[in-house]
Amino acid sequence: MTVENEDLKKEVEKTSPLREWVVNYIGTKLAPEDGNVTLEMALDVFAEEFPEFVLALAEENFMRGYQQAFNDIQSMAAQQQEQTKQDEQPSA
Q1: What is the reported pLDDT for 75?
Q2: Taking 70 as the threshold, does the pLDDT of residue 91 lie above it?
Q3: pLDDT per residue as tens digits for the range 13-42
Q4: How far apart are CA 57 and CA 46, in angstroms?
Q5: Which domain holds residue 75?
Q6: Phi, psi dihedrals of residue 8, rounded to the nearest 5°
Q7: Which of 9, 14, 31, 53 has the fewest CB atoms lying closer than 10 Å?
Q8: Per-residue confidence band for 92, with pLDDT thresholds at 50, 70 and 90
Q9: Other C-beta atoms lying within 10 Å of the C-beta of residue 38
Q10: pLDDT tens column, 44-88
Q11: CA-to-CA distance for 67 and 54, rounded, in angstroms?
């Protein structure tokens, strides 16, 4: 099963000085035929040239996802416990 992230195909806009510098750097390095720099290109270049930055982002994303899953499990358990209490109460 392959999951494609369509956002990776989007062109990166030069909306700040940093983005402009990054897009120009990547454009010069990769020289895309259409002249457009995509998010996927940026990620590839960062992974190649600044892997510790990409790794830190990935680790942070993983930890936040793990924490969210843990919170969801706790919330579901509390909801199920409340539903069980309600089901056990005698009907009037």
Answers
A1: 92
A2: no
A3: 999 999 999 999 999 999 999 999 999 999
A4: 11
A5: 9-86
A6: -65, -20
A7: 31
A8: low
A9: 19
A10: 999 999 999 999 999 998 998 888 998 999 999 999 988 888 888
A11: 20
User: In this structure, is residue 4 part of a structural domain?
Assistant: no
Tokens of 44: 């590839």
Q: How many residues does the chain have?
A: 92
Q: Does 51 reside within a domain?
A: yes
Q: What is the DSSP string of 7-44?
A: GGGSBPP--SHHHHHHHHHHHHHH--TTS--BHHHHHH
Structure tokens at 23: 């897009």
CB atoms within 10 A of CB 26: 21
Question: Apex CA 32: angle with CA 26 and CA 35, to 5°?
Answer: 90
Does a structural domain hold residue 1?
no
Nearest CA to 13 out of 49, 34, 46, 37 is that of 37
Count how many domains the chain has.
1
